[in-house]
């Protein structure tokens, strides 16, 4: 979520950019799947969906020159910044952020910054109707079950009874999870109105009992008859005569 934090901090400082010039990676843009292409849906990554909500265009860099420019900048910061923090004994995130904001960036920009050819600021003001929990979050589509349970990450979200008359079963909802773990279930109506559905953890379903199989029935067939000795002097006949009661 480092890119999310960087974008959020940039917007808070400068405003919403009109476009981002990024590398062509699956983090920013991706190819649509077969089902998305059949339904005519746009393919968004998590970061791309955030930019789409803020109306930020993502321009994927396709030329080696564009990629090399940012890579050279990264190489410079990784070389200079790490060594300076090591000399100052900075070893935690909070101290590093304070040093970068208050000392490192002002000194670096004063030495290497080049004035832009135009002074026009192309940032826009952020729409106040868009809340952070609706923009900077993980978002997945889920289908409401017949029992009004939404399955999400191996657990069930039982929707409140008040939503059952307004949100039909088998409809699609958006499950949004913020960085601190808060989960919200959003239903988008046909008129575009978003409704937050209250939920509680669903009771774990009891495993379906397996039907008891009846014991196997032994097949009683014709037994093979034993051969009876015919000679009267055979020992078997003597044993049979001895076993008979007198």
What does it look like?
By secondary structure, this protein is of the alpha+beta class. Helices cover 35% and strands 18% of the residues. The protein has seven helices and nine strands; from the N terminus they run H-E-H-H-E-H-H-H-E-E-E-E-E-E-E-H. It has helices spanning 2-14, 34-39, 46-53, 64-88, 93-112, 132-135, 235-243; strands at 19-23, 57-61, 138-143, 149-152, 155-159, 172-177, 183-188, 194-197, 199-201. The strands form three sheets. A four-stranded antiparallel beta sheet has the order 3-6-7-8, with no helix packed on it. The chain is elongated and about 130 Å long. The chain starts with a helix and ends with a helix.
Rg over CA atoms: 37 Å
Helical content (DSSP H or I, runs of 4+)? 25-40%
Shape call: elongated
- Provide the β-strand percentage band: 15-25%
Produce a short descriptive summary.
The protein is built from 7 helices and 9 strands; from the N terminus they run αβααβαααβββββββα.
Write the layout of secondary structure elements.
Blueprint: H1 2-14, E1 19-23, H2 34-39, H3 46-53, E2 57-61, H4 64-88, H5 93-112, H6 132-135, E3 138-143, E4 149-152, E5 155-159, E6 172-177, E7 183-188, E8 194-197, E9 199-201, H7 235-243
Parallel strand pairs: 1-2
Antiparallel strand pairs: 3-6, 4-5, 5-9, 6-7, 7-8
Keywords:
single chain; 246 residues; four-stranded antiparallel sheet; 9 strands; alpha+beta; three-stranded antiparallel sheet; 35% helix; elongated; 7 helices; 18% strand
């Amino acid at each position: 979520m480092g890119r999310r934090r960087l974008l959020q901090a940039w917007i808070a400082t400068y405003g919403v950019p009109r476009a981002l010039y990024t590398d062509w990676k699956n983090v920013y843009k991706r190819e649509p799947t077969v089902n998305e292409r059949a339904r005519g849906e746009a393919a968004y990554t998590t970061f791309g969906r955030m930019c789409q909500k803020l109306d930020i265009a993502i321009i994927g860099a396709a030329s080696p020159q564009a990629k090399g420019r940012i890579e050279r900048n990264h190489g410079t910061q990784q070389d200079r910044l790490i060594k300076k923090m090591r000399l100052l004994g900075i070893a935690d995130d909070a101290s590093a952020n304070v040093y970068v904001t208050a000392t490192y960036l002002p000194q670096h920009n004063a030495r290497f910054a080049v004035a832009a050819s135009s002074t026009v600021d192309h940032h826009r003001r952020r729409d106040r109707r868009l809340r952070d929990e609706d923009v900077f979050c993980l978002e997945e589509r889920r289908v409401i079950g017949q029992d009004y349970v939404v399955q999400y990450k191996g657990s069930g979200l039982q929707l409140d009874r008040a939503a059952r008359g307004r949100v039909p079963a088998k409809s699609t909802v958006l499950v949004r999870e913020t960085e601190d773990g808060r989960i919200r279930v959003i239903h988008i109506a046909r008129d575009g109105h978003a409704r937050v559905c209250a939920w509680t953890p669903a009771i774990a379903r009891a495993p379906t009992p397996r039907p008891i199989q009846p014991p196997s029935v032994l097949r009683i067939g014709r037994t093979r008859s034993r051969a009876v000795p015919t000679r009267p002097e055979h020992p078997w006949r003597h044993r049979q005569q001895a076993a008979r009661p007198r």
